[in-house]
Amino acid sequence: MDEQPGLSDQYRKSSPWPLFIAVGLALFEVGIVLADVLFPVAVGGMLMFVGSIVGILRESEYIDNPWKAMVVCAGLAFAVGGALWTLTSADSVQLRGTAIVVGGAVLLVGAIAGSLWQPTAA
Fold first, then answer.
1. Mind giving me the DSSP string for 49-116?
2. Quick check: 1 pLDDT over 50?
3. Domain boundaries in the chain?
4. Closest listed residue to residue 55, CA positions, set 45, 67, 44
C-alpha cells in the first residue's frame, strides 16, 4: 500500500494555492453581486486572489521578494480598477472597478508595511 497516494515521487509536495485562488474569485463575485451588504467581501476576495498569485510565484521561486510583487499587483489593480470605473457607465462594472481600486489600496499599504517590518538577515 502506498503511503502517499496521489502524489508522485517527482513532486515534493502539493500546493494549497489553487484552492485559495478559486475561493478568492468566488468571494469577489459574491461580494459584487450582493454589494449592498457584502462589498467588503468583494475586496477581501480580491485580496485573497492576489495574495495567492503572489504565493504561487514565491513558492515556485519566480520571485525572491513577495512585497515587491504585491506593489506591482497593487499598481495593476489601480490601473484596471480605474479603467473600469472611468470608462464604463454601467453600475455593476463601476462597482467592480471600485472594489478593485479599494483592494489595490489595501494591497499597497500592506506591501509597504510588510516590506518595512520584514526581518533582516544578520
1. HHHHHHHHHHHTTS-S-HHHHHHHHHHHHHHHHHHHHHH---HHHHHHHHHHHHHHHHHHHHHHHHHH
2. no
3. 17-115
4. 67
Mean pLDDT of the 24-43 span: 88
The angle, 0 to 180 degrees and rounded to 10, between the axes of the packed helices 35-59 and 91-116 is: 50
Could you tell me if 95 and 35 are in contact, meaning their C-beta atoms sit under 8 angstroms apart?
yes
For every residue of 34-47, DSSP letters joined together read THHHHHHHHHHHHH
Is the pTM of the predicted complex or chain greater than 0.90? Answer: no
Q: How many CB atoms lie within 10 A of CB 24?
A: 20
C-alpha neighbours within 13 Å on the C-beta side of residue 121: 0
**From CA 59, how far away is CA 14, in angstroms rounded?**
11
Kindly state the cell numbers that stand for 8. 508522485
Angle between helices 17-33 and 35-59 (to 10 degrees): 160
pLDDT tens for residues 11-33? 566 788 889 999 999 999 898 88
